[in-house]
Amino acid sequence: MIFKLDEQVKRFEMVKRGVRGLLCGGCVVGVMVIGGCGGEQHGDVAVSELGVKTFNTWVVPADDGIVPAPRSITIGEDDRVLVLDNGGRVLIYSKDGELEKQFDMPTNEAGNPEGACWLRDGRIVVADTHYFRLVFFNEDGEVVETRGSKSEKGEKGKYIYPVDVVQDEDGFIYVAEYGGNDRVQKFTEDGEFVFDFGKFGTGPGEFQRCAGMFIRGEEIWVADATNGRVQVFNKDTGDYLRMLGQERELDEVESDGEIAVVAGSEDGLRRGPWGEYVFNYPYDLAEGEDGVYVLEWGGGRFVKIGFDGEVKGFYGKPGMREGEFRTPWGIGVDSRGHVRVADTKNRRVVEVVFE
Questions:
Q1: 283-299 pLDDT, tens per residue?
Q2: What distances in angstroms separate CA 237 from CA 34, 116, 197, 249, one per listed residue?
Q3: Are residues 15 and 146 in the same domain?
Q4: Are residues 30 and 143 in the same domain?
Q5: Cβ(213)–Cβ(232) under 8 Å?
Q6: Of 6, 33, 118, 197, whose CB count within 10 A is highest?
Q7: Which pLDDT does position 3 carry in this prediction?
Q8: Is the per-residue pLDDT at 2 higher than 90?
Q9: Pairing mode, strands 277-278 and 270-271
Q10: What is the mean predicted confidence (pLDDT) over 319-329?
Q11: pTM (2 decimals)?
């Protein structure tokens, strides 16, 4: 069973009445947030565990008197930061937050892009989400190529909503998309289709709204936003490997396809049928030196988890002040371990420095 929003709300209300004591804090059933019952307790523990030193904000330049909202973060060489905003702009910052250059997408009347990547040849490729294509820029911000068009049939090299793009050390390019073609496509550097993996659904290896990605060794990690989880695949074969936090093998669980929380845990995260972590709309994720940072769009925070699945801490809660985020959309970690967050609804880029 794949929940739609109204079905999720009904289920949420039934479960909340029955087990309110268990499901407190930043919790989810399916993908619905359960709040208002002591959620700050987990947040306080997270701040202490992570040992945050400073919370800095960067200015997003105004556009015709309006400050657009950032919605994507990508870290490049020399820890430069690439930001996409909902003004249809590509912004390049130095590692210290100085705006170095900016340029515009070809158009953004239909909507704004959600993911970008610095390629190994110096070009920038943007997943132009609502135009069903990839847009390639040179270092001067000039469009040099576009690839793709719209298809709702899962055709090779075509998209519904391409949402993120990454490149591995061998030059292969991976594009995540959602909207029915919930999958990741793999291409050569020149754009030749190699294979794809994933489909719309709730089972292991299936997605409801693919989101952010990163590559670690032979693995590609993908945020599965509406299903509330992070899935890991072999990048060379597309084979499903595991979900973040998964404790049980797939054949140990009889699942009817529902994304339902079956247990809570002391770390403040919920567990799904296979013991996997269930996040509050994970829209993006980033690799750090000793773990992965999972950004919760619905929870207004990020969660740090070791590659072995151990929860290391949390930071943030919904709000507008220091240490708070509103619908954060993108996250990145630089070589110094500084975390950058596209704090979308607060219209700012945040830098979090740990002790």
A1: 999 999 999 999 999 99
A2: 38, 23, 9, 20
A3: no
A4: no
A5: no
A6: 197
A7: 41
A8: no
A9: antiparallel
A10: 96
A11: 0.86
Q: Report yes or no on 127 lying in a domain.
A: yes
Q: What is the CATH number of the domain that holds 130?
A: 2.120.10.30
Neighbour tally for 167: CB within 10 Å: 18
Bridge partners of 354? 52
Residue 77 resides in a domain: no
Q: Sign of dihedral through CA atoms 274, 275, 280, 286?
A: negative
Which tokens hold the place of 192? Answer: 């030749």
For residues 109 and 254, membership in a common domain is answered with yes
Domain ranges, residue 175:
105-278
Region 68-79 average pLDDT:
97
Q: Are residues 259 and 110 in the same domain?
A: yes
Reported as a single tens digit per residue, the pLDDT across 128-171 is 999 999 999 999 999 999 999 999 999 999 999 999 999 999 99
Identify whether residues 209 and 110 lie together within a single domain. Answer: yes
* Structural domains counted in the chain: 3
Please tell me the distance from the alpha carbon of residue 114 to that of residue 83, in angstroms, as a whole number.
10
Q: What is the widest separation between alpha-carbon atoms in the chain?
A: 58
Q: Is 81 inside a domain boundary?
A: no
Which of 227, 262, 278 finishes a domain?
278
Residues 112 and 58 in one domain: no
